[in-house]
Prior knowledge:
Blueprint: H1 3-23, E1 28-35, E2 38-44, E3 50-55, H2 63-82, H3 95-108
Antiparallel strand pairs: 1-2, 2-3
Pfam family, one: Sedlin_N
InterPro entries: Longin-like_dom_sf, Sedlin
Amino acid sequence: LDAPMRELVVRAALDFVDERSWETNATYLRVVDRFNDVDAHAHCAPTRARMVLLTNGARTSGGEEAVRGFFGEVHEALAIATMNPMLGEDEALGSAFDERARSAAARRL
């Protein structure tokens, strides 16, 4: 998928994330949407921060556990980044969070 189509799939998946997050207390919501051969996995943090990961369906190395582990690492990085007292409410999380998320993706997926 090209970038605009990926963004469309993620935005559509967020609607399903909102629905499913009210139905369960679990943070990892599994696959919330599918488009062609792309699966949208979701994680909703207790702070209501929502994360969506697009994967190529069955070709994800490590399967469901790899995705769950990825979200666990990204959730930890998110917690560390948001606890930074120097970070304003409207500021981006910064390069440290981005680097940890990319590193988790390289290791887990």
